[in-house]
Amino acid sequence: MAYKRFTDRLPIIPADAQERNVTCHYCIVGCGYKAYTWPLNRQGGGAPSDNKFGVDLTRQQPTETEAWYAPSMYNVVKQDGRDVHLVIKPDVNCAVNSGLGSVRGARMAENRRSDITGTQQQRLTEPMVWRYGTWQPTTWADALDLVARVTARVIDMDNEDDLFVSMFDHGGSAGGYENTWGTGKLYFDSMKVKNCRIHNRPAYNSEVHSTRDMGVGELNNAYSDYEITDTMVLVGTNPLECQTNLFLNHMIPGMRNGARVVIIDPRRTVTVNACEEAAGAENVLHLQIAPGTDLAVANALFTHIADQGWVDSDFIAASTFADGVAQAVDEAHPTALGSFEAAREECRMSAADAAAICGVSEADIIKAAEWIARPHDDGTRRTCAIAYEKGVIWGNDNYPTVGALVNIALATGNIGREGGGVCRLGGHQEGYFRPSDAHVGRPAAYLDQLIIGGQGKVHHIWANDHYKTTLNASEFKRVYNRRSNMVKEAMDARAGTTREELVDAIVGAIEAGGIFSVNVDVIHSQIGQAAHVILPAVESGEMNLTSMNGERRLRLTEKYMDGPGSSKPDCLIAAGIAQHLERVLREEGRDAYADRFTGYDWQTEEDAFVDGYQTGNPEVTYDRLRAMGNNGVQEPVTGYADGKLVGTNRLYADGVFNRHGREDGKALFCLGAWRGLQAPGKAQQQANHRFLINNGRSNLNWQNWFLDQDNDFAIDRFPLPFIQINPEDAADLGVKSGDMVEVYNDVGATQAMAYLEPTARPNETFMLFGAPSGAQGNVINPGVNELVLPNYKQTWANIRKIADPSPAAEKISFKSWEVEL
Ligand SMILES: Nc1nc2c(c(=O)[nH]1)N[C@H]1C(S)=C(S)[C@@H](COP(=O)(O)OP(=O)(O)OC[C@H]3O[C@@H](n4cnc5c(=O)[nH]c(N)nc54)[C@H](O)[C@@H]3O)O[C@H]1N2
Ligand SMILES: Nc1nc2c(c(=O)[nH]1)N[C@H]1C(S)=C(S)[C@@H](COP(=O)(O)OP(=O)(O)OC[C@H]3O[C@@H](n4cnc5c(=O)[nH]c(N)nc54)[C@H](O)[C@@H]3O)O[C@H]1N2
Ligand code: SF4
Ligand SMILES: [Mo]
Fold this sequence. Notes:
binds ligand MGD, binds molybdenum atom, alpha/beta, 27 helices, 30 strands
């Protein structure tokens, strides 16, 4: 662990340092930070007038002082071409995090590219094209010309089906309103691309179709609701590690205010432990269910609550559909939707039956129902906030399972009320503003399988890496390498020819089954190794970027540094592709089609914001957002008064539900009965393999390690993805902590670093997902639900030892995740 051993002093922020608002661009929570920059040849001083904090730094500061920062919050970067000191530190005045950082966000500064301190030298600086058997740096004009010429050959006015697109749909890191608009305008307005997917799933669809179909948008409460609720229900989510400051700054205070917590997760997470510490073990109920059985337990909770009469009848009468079935099962709706009584009938599940399916006790299910809904002794209703994330979304039978949670919230009148909500806890921040995607259809195309099946001729990829994060990844990589190599070989064979001849050669290889791959990223990613053109993007902070967090809090992150080299905002890259397509199409005499690619004369990201988001939200401008600072405004924005944007603290406070677009404004219940492991191939995989390969995140690592892989602090801790395994199982396999193991099953194999963990249940492992040195997705089968939602979490495989610990793995600690406080 050589990490920052030699940092014994850091410069003091001078009083006149520039100060900018920053929303952490990693997770959904969107903590507020301040970025301070000042010229390299200056430093602040100890006297109050000489430093930004205005305090006497020659004296010992109190424990809770704001007047400090850690080495990870410091760097030297370029600003308008000059080297400047940079400090990015948490903002005590931001309502989201009140000055808290996290082990990810507090490393924002050291994860910027610096030519002085040498950090993140992996960042792309110039466009690159495949030439002479490798990637050669080139200009934007050259790279975009090649992209446009090849793309133009495979698309036409009425048929754009051979252009495949993988694109982010989120805010924060990559994404944001500017960039979803730039890409959205290109692919959904100028074109009508239907063969597309989102960064985290193999189709262009919703993660949570059912709640929307029921009328309930998935981010409907405020973080402060967790502080005042009677009961929190956390289903398939691990907020201490994944929504850290929502947990620490809002949920923990809620527990200290007396809230009880029900957690549904097959794994004993550090969140369970932390809740027990904060609330007292007697106020925490962990339903440690068998994997994939959430629907059974949720339907049993709903049944028991309804049978006991603990429902909010007034709310049900006023705000929900009353009359049988409103939406029958069809191709777009895996289950029917309708009235409370219809749902009661369809979802009926006794606590005893659920207990048998889920492997928890009947008494605990009844206790959970009581904590959620049994009125207080004085007869008043209990408030309950339900939160779910990837254990459910990427879990078994997404549609009825999410629907079953919303059923409970609707039945108990806990939406639009203080202390209520039934919400995704979220992943990235949000920042979606695009033209309609209706042409994509539902169910949407299963893009990865189409590629595996030989379809798609040109593939544009924006800010995601299938090689690390998709399902059925072993097969995907085999096919993608083969198909993209066909094009590389054709390009190599025609090196030294004219552009026309080169394009002909590429198209020839495409027609023979190849695929031409364009990768827009900030680093040279793993799927980027297969690309033919690589386009360098900037990140948040290297551009102005707007996003909203998990309580719909919209903020502007102000640009505080230059992007590396000639990298550009994604929205301006999309504009560049459009402009080059227009030019090429005109040259080819395809004027009518070329006309579609006009309207991209944006000079800045703000122009893209004005062209997109602002047309739908005329009150919101950069200037106004800047003035709203790190507390921003909660969407939807309803007006502008007294110099402030006016927002919406909580959705559905009026009891009118509109997310489904029904005119009556009534919410629908979900009529989804338990039906076992739903996705094709899962039940067989479970039957034929010993270990559950549960998977997900760790506090330290951000996503697919795109920055972490070049960060000593992260790599020193986990040089390889860990797989937590029960110590007796490990003994059985002859495996010790640090050993490299192979995880293998019917669809593929991957590797991981064994981490013996006493809290892991026998035969149930947990592997860090998305790692460059061992993709968990290699062993996930292609099974998805009817609407092409993947089931990443339910994966079974066998495990064998392949090597003793590497020198890097030998040095690390294998202490239990669960620390004794
Ligand atoms: N097994 C398993 N698989 C999963 C999941 C799971 O739980 N288990 N979870 C799924 C989920 S929820 C997610 S979100 C996905 C994540 O999967 P990905 O989306 O593939 O992962 P990220 O790390 O978010 O990818 C970000 C990519 O964008 C690049 N990038 C970062 N910032 C920018 C930018 O500003 N512009 C551009 N153009 N590029 C940028 C990064 O270098 C990186 O290559 O994985 C999914 N896959
Ligand atoms: N530190 C960190 N934070 C992050 C991210 C990150 O990469 N690192 N990524 C962000 C993103 S994009 C996302 S989408 C979110 C994801 O946030 P979360 O969903 O909270 O995180 P995961 O670890 O993917 O999965 C959550 C839990 O699902 C459980 N689970 C597995 N199978 C089942 C099941 O059958 N039923 C139930 N009930 N639970 C099950 C797992 O044991 C795990 O504890 O995190 C965001 N925050
Ligand atoms: S909790 Fe999320 S948003 Fe907040 S600092 Fe950590 S990674 Fe950033
Ligand atoms: Mo995600």
